[in-house]
Amino acid sequence: MIYEIRTYQIAPGSLAEVEKRFGDAYQYRKKYSELTAFLHTEVGPLNEIVHIWGYKDLADRARVRGEASKEANWPPKIQEFIRAMRSEIITPFGFIPEPHPGKLGPVYELRYYTIKPGTIADLAKGWESKIAERGKLSPIVFAGPVEFGRANGYPIGDRTTYSQVRFLVGSLSHLDEIFEGRLIHRAGVPSRLVRAAAEPEVRYDYRGESLGLDQYLARNPTTGLLIARDDTILVERYQYARNDRHRFTSFSMAKTVTSMLIGIAIAEGRIRSVDDPAAAYVPGLAGTEYGRTSLRHLLQMSSGVRFLEEYSGRDDITRLASDTFWLRGPGGVAAVTQFNERTAPGGTRFSYASVETQVLGLVLTHALGRPVSAYLQEKIWQPIGAEADATWLVDRAGQESTFCCLNAVLRDYARLGLLLAHDGNWRGRQIIPAAWIREATTVRPEQPYLAPRTATRFFGYGYQTWIFPDEPGMFAFLGIRGQTIYVDPSRRLVMVHTAVRKLPVDPANAETIALWRGVVRDLGR
Prior knowledge:
By secondary structure, this protein is α+β, with helices and mostly antiparallel strands. The chain contains 17 helices and 20 strands. The longest helix is centred in the first third of the chain and has 15 residues, at 119-133.
């Protein structure tokens, strides 16, 4: 016998319900009509449709499917569904195990069509253990969404392909193998993080629905999710074959780390004042617009210097990346001096520009007389008891790309978030000045252009931090493609989220904010 199964848009749990009701019945061709009718009427309105055919052999399949494959012969409900899929589908995925030569045996053909990332993961969870146990689909290794490369083991791209969707999972957890990074050594003894005895339930509201963590992960291309309160891990999940040893890239979450290092350097007297111009520390910036800009205005992304960041592949952020961690240009000071057109006075408007954090990184390097990574290791990474080495990507001059590209394991990102949730104090030791964190996460009355819903449609902006509206003290580290650390100091609560969203700036990030609001409501105390 040959069984062909086609699955559209998996509804979590429904396949288990099918199996519970029908047992082995779906093996038999005579049960096909009854099973299909059940799926169409009881699983849900078009959120899951499974077609199952049984054939005597391959020739029988070819004969039967020749007529059945004509769309005009499909039931009206199926035709309607297919039309809808054609307008929404992302990528079809075909997985067809071939029969062994000379021994036909059972042949299974599975074709998956996924509308949203994550649905194939649901299929694997729902079917793999149950069906493999009975030996029905034991030869099959379930593949994840084809767009993320599970069928090929989540391959790692190279310097030209790493940002292609099919390489994102592999690349964003191995970016320091694609580009050059400087090592940040872990602590000699990791700090202890307690793990909750059981994962608490979290619900969140999004677009009129009440959803849970499993549904969030099924709907979003999250690679890692960790929720912690005080010193306790409440939730730690991974997807797409990632685990707690993978170093996930931060993208622009590194900007917040850079800001914290500036605060430490000021407290130590290595930088005199946040109102000093950048050229006071970096001689190569003398006579340039960024050289004349104060550190405060750089921290607040309000230099007034023109810089276009649209992620179009032809904008200024592309030029900056090319000259820094892409290693195509000289790096160092030359990477930032090419942007030298002032369009507004400093401190008058917010305009997000990654180059401003790169200027801050140059200030740190020159003020300290050593690499930024070494300073992070000494002042933050080892004092908080980081359990794993981290890396920071560098340019051809050896300068860290401080606007992006810190790489760390999920629990160490959580430690970093918890440090800030405790006002820079780590278990009795003040690592970052509490006054600096308050300053970095507060909008001054005289700077309304930085306020939430003014700087952007939602967030406000501090010193390289994103400030929530209507939630005093709550802030975020944010990076493209879904990298996030949310921090609620009042509840000592942190959520770390790494992802492989297909768009650099993705509207689906709104669902992550909705999840965070549910976490605060259900787990804050």
